[in-house]
Amino acid sequence: MSAPVRRVTVPGLVALGVGSMVGAGIFALMGEAAALTGSAVWLAFGVAGIIALLTGHSFVQLGIRYPTRGGVVEYLAQAYGTGRFSGGCSILFYIAQLIGMAMISLAFGKFAAALIGIESNLPVWERVLGTGLILGLSALALVGTRVVAQVQRKVVLANLILLAVFTIALGGHGEPARLSPAAWPGGTPVLGSLALTFFAFTGFATISNAADRVQDPARDLPRAMYTAIGLVLVLYVALAMAITAVVSEQELVSSGAKLLPVAARSVFGEVGYRVLLVSAVLSTVTCLNGGLFGVTSITFTLAERGQLPSRFEQEIGASTRGLTISALAAVILVNFLSLTTIASLGSATSLLVYSLVNFGALRLVGGGGMKRVWIVLSVVACLVAIAIWVVYTLRHAPHSLSIFATFLVLAFVAEGLLQRYHGRRILPREHWDAS
């Protein structure tokens, strides 16, 4: 007799979504976005949040129609069939997860170096520390310890509370004049940062992954999705406005990943600076641990279905080779790319995959009326954001666009070679359910 399925409530789904969105990413991405947009950073997060709400609607409709844990991989296969296109898109999604892991690791290096007090050879030490975090957490996963996982939820909750309190506390010390549109850098930088700020919301997809454990998906998924994204949208915009009103224009555009600790120091002194650094370090550790677990699950599933080589599902220690291969790939990214480049690539890659999901929803979800209108708007919003990112990146960081194109080609070439020379075939859904 099979064990009963543990149902997830709406508050539980909201907590899952908020916890997945608000983590290490906001510590790194707030500063990176501010470097582009200056005092209009809050506007960039606001627009990105609207795109996330529209895309969340597509995920809700697909989650209701296909209530499984497959998430993005499932939706791509349903929308585009079990062929090379969906396989290449799934590998592209895997690459986006690797980029996200690299971003978190490099952000950890920056926070840890600042906390320890390292001042010389910073780029080298940041990469050494980031690499050490990947290797250390991977080793713990192979051994099978759950120490980090056991404290992960507590750290996430503590960081949420800290950021909320921090935002409220900053609100009483700012200069509203710094938020004036007269101080904005213009429309181009704000629009160019949309892919970057959207990356801070991408965790909302985990809500639809839990659709199979919801009592009434048609009722509960929309409530949870829109509540979670709405709460995070309010937090991000309020936090960005509070920081903008507190720090100088120079600090806003030059602090990078350390923008939040710098803002804390400007009001609460060295104690506030170190508290935010400690929070950022703990957040990156737990976030990367969750990322390693997630990417291992993704690679195992993709290998099982024929979308990655069978080597990825081979057991090694308490995990699989998918973990070690992914960790090695993330280490390479950490040591050869800057945080700005990694964040930009991860944002654009995720936005492209989510655009494909939105278009898939347009093909799969029946009916008409406003339900379909919102899906059309999600497709348009994501495509416009990608187009703007391409134009802006081509002008200001063409090397990032070249790397992005390389990843795109690599995903589809790898899928083609995999099917042609390794005899792997993407299994239809009835085989997934039977496995």
Q: Compute the number of structural domains.
A: 1
Which of globular, elongated, flat, extended, rod-shaped describes the shape? globular
- CATH A-level architecture: Up-down Bundle
**Arithmetic mean of pLDDT:** 85
Number of helices: 18
Tell me the fraction of residues in β-strands, as a range.
under 5%
Which strand order do you get reading across the main beta sheet?
1-2
Write down the oligomeric state.
single chain
Main structural class: mainly alpha
- H/E element order: HHHHHHHHHHHHHEEHHHHH
The largest sheet is: 2 strands, antiparallel
List how many beta strands DSSP finds: 2
CATH superfamily: Amino acid/polyamine transporter I
* Poorly predicted segments: 428-435
Reported by name, the CATH topology is Amino acid/polyamine transporter I
How far the N terminus sits from the C terminus, by CA atoms, comes to 18 Å
User: What would CATH call the class?
Assistant: Mainly Alpha
Rg from alpha-carbon coordinates: 21 Å
Helix content: over 70%
What does this structure look like?
Mean pLDDT is 85; it is low at 428-435. α2 packs across α13, α5 runs antiparallel to α15 and α7 packs antiparallel against α13. This protein has a single domain (10-175, 186-425), classed as Amino acid/polyamine transporter I (Up-down Bundle), CATH 1.20.1740.10. Strands 1-2 form a two-stranded antiparallel sheet. It is an all-alpha fold and 435 residues long. The protein has 18 helices and two strands. Helices cover 78% and strands 1% of the residues.
